[in-house]
From TrEMBL:
PANTHER family: TRNA MODIFICATION GTPASE GTPBP3, TRNA MODIFICATION GTPASE GTPBP3, MITOCHONDRIAL
InterPro entries reported in the protein's UniProt record: G_TrmE, GTP-bd, GTP-bd_TrmE_N, GTPase_MnmE, MnmE_dom2, MnmE_helical, P-loop_NTPase, Small_GTP-bd
Protein keywords: Cytoplasm, GTP-binding, Hydrolase, Magnesium, Metal-binding, Nucleotide-binding, Potassium, tRNA processing
Protein's UniProt name: tRNA modification GTPase MnmE
Needed co-factor(s): K(+)
Compartments it resides in: Cytoplasm
Positions of the TrmE-type G domain: 223-382
Length: 461
């Protein structure tokens, strides 16, 4: 297949100080050389592939210098689209980016349609459909970590697993074919059923595992629900403020004046957190009653992470111990705040109550200890149960829905096999499962579906 050369702004407008104009196609290098001037005078075509070059863009017709740029030069086929790719990094203002884009368009490129770069990668066999969709997630990814997940998917983890599942299904379909071709041999039927059942049960359990990780994919996109608890006045709102680094929550001198639940979305070292300050859910000064309040229980129970704040300058109270009890089965970090004041807390006792949980000391007023807290949060997340790096996440709504469908059809097949339904009837459900899984990686997708998918992409991807 031969394509023309396309160009578009590939960074979302308004995000970051650098913007990229990307070119892809057989004339990408030629077009770039028409407008790019390196101080050395060397043309890009003479450079090694996958190198970056500093220089200026010059309008070849007026000889006016348009922009100071860095140009990435990547020769096919080791590029995202498997075509020659040029990326022009320029200062991010709308005016300058548009100037660069219009220059390369005048020099011979065509403005890309939304999603056209990704579509080319797909059409050139560089990525499959689920990978193409991962790019779409990438564009929307809120944090670096969510981006890693999207990237992991791009690398084809999900595709690989789906491929293995389909292979297993194919093998049992083949076995059933034998069966259907030789209906007179009962022993073949005898052999087919257990093979088919075993493979189907395995496929189903893998689908279930994938569906389970889908909620973790959601966590990564929407943030870990993080609840800040502690007695009045220990510094919960101050902690929320420190983490948000803006003064959105109300910090007061008087205990118990924060009324509403405050939620903030922050990115702590790549971990997306949705922070909740529980000061607002306090209905009474009495902490025992407070824990009893339905609403706070619910908030606690739904939390992925608890930040439990204690006062360094006060002895532990019975209330504090009750809170330790309330969170004992959850992921929490103990934050001992106000270390700028004289110590009254018994750290040994805290250690004992906290068991193997992490302890961090802070003085929020002196902006001390926040780094260690952030470090602990990141550690807990990246080294903890979630083990984000090793898992295959499904974070795409279309994939999740297809997996549910596949789960249904494979369950139908299993049920039928257990009920001694004729093998050719079971084969229908197994084949259907194979088709549905194929839709995830674009194998049985028709053109209509493809176009619909690609038109969702942002311009420049
Ligand atoms: P909350 O009721 O737990 O939300 O506590 P706040 O965040 O509203 O803080 C209560 C009071 O403690 C405020 O006057 C804060 O300025 C003060 N405070 C917070 N952190 C520190 C700290 O590290 N040291 C000192 N000395 N005061 C702090
Ligand atoms: Zn508060």
């Amino acid at each position: 297949m031969e394509f023309d050369t396309i160009a578009a702004i590939s960074t979302p407008s308004g995000e970051g100080a650098i913007a990229i104009v990307r070119l892809s196609g057989p004339k990408a290098i030629e077009i770039a050389d028409k407008v790019f001037r390196a101080p050395s005078g060397k043309v890009l075509a003479s450079q090694a592939t996958h190198t970056i070059h500093y220089g200026h863009l010059q309008d070849p017709w007026t000889e006016e210098v348009v922009e100071e740029v860095m140009v990435s030069f990547m020769k096919a086929p080791k590029t995202f689209t498997r075509e020659d790719v040029i990326e022009i990094n320029c200062h991010g203002g709308i005016v300058s980016v548009n100037r660069v884009l219009s220059l390369v368009l005048r020099a011979g490129a065509r403005l890309a349609e939304p999603g056209e770069f990704t579509k080319r990668a797909f059409l050139n066999g560089r990525i499959d459909l689920s990978q193409a969709e991962a790019v779409m997630d990438l564009i929307r990814a809120k944090t670096d970590r969510a981006m890693d997940v999207a990237l992991g998917q791009m690398e084809g983890r999900l595709s690989k697993l789906i491929g293995t599942l389909r292979q297993a299904l194919l093998e049992s379909i083949a076995q059933m074919e034998v069966n259907i071709d030789y209906p007179e041999y009962d022993d073949v039927e005898e052999m087919t059923r257990p093979v088919m059942l075993e493979k189907s049960l395995w496929v189903r359990s893998e689908i279930e595992r994938l569906l389970q990780t889908s909620s973790q994919g959601k966590i990564l996109r929407e943030g870990l629900s993080t609840v800040i608890i502690g007695r009045p006045n220990v510094g919960k709102s101050s902690l929320l403020n420190s983490l948000v680094q803006e003064n959105k929550a109300i910090v007061t001198e008087i205990a118990g004046t924060t009324r509403d639940i405050i939620e903030e979305y922050v990115n702590v070292r790549g971990v997306p957190l949705r922070l909740v300050d529980t000061a607002g859910i306090r209905e009474t000064e009495d902490i025992v009653e407070r824990i009893g309040v339905e609403r706070s229980r619910k908030v606690l129970k739904e939390a992925d992470l608890i930040l439990y704040v204690l006062n360094y300058s006060e002895a532990l109270t019975a209330e504090d111990e009750l809170l330790f009890e309330a969170v004992k089965d959850m992921d929490y970090i103990v934050v001992i705040n106000k270390t700028d004041l004289p110590q009254k807390i018994d750290l040994g006792q805290v250690q004992q109550l906290a068991g193997n949980k992490r302890l961090v000391t802070t003085s929020l007023i002196e902006e001390e200890g926040i780094d260690q807290l952030e470090e602990s949060i990141a550690e807990l997340f990246f080294e903890g149960e979630l083990e984000a790096g090793d898992m295959t996440y499904v974070s795409n709504a279309r994939h999740i829905s297809l997996l549910h469908q596949a789960h249904q059809t494979i369950s139908d097949a299993i049920e039928a096999a257990e009920m001694d339904v004729p093998v050719d009837m079971i084969q229908i459900d197994v084949t259907r499962t194979w088709e549905i899984l194929g839709e995830i990686i674009g194998d049985t997708a028709d053109d209509g579906l493809l176009n619909q998918l690609f038109s969702q992409f942002c311009l420049g991807k």
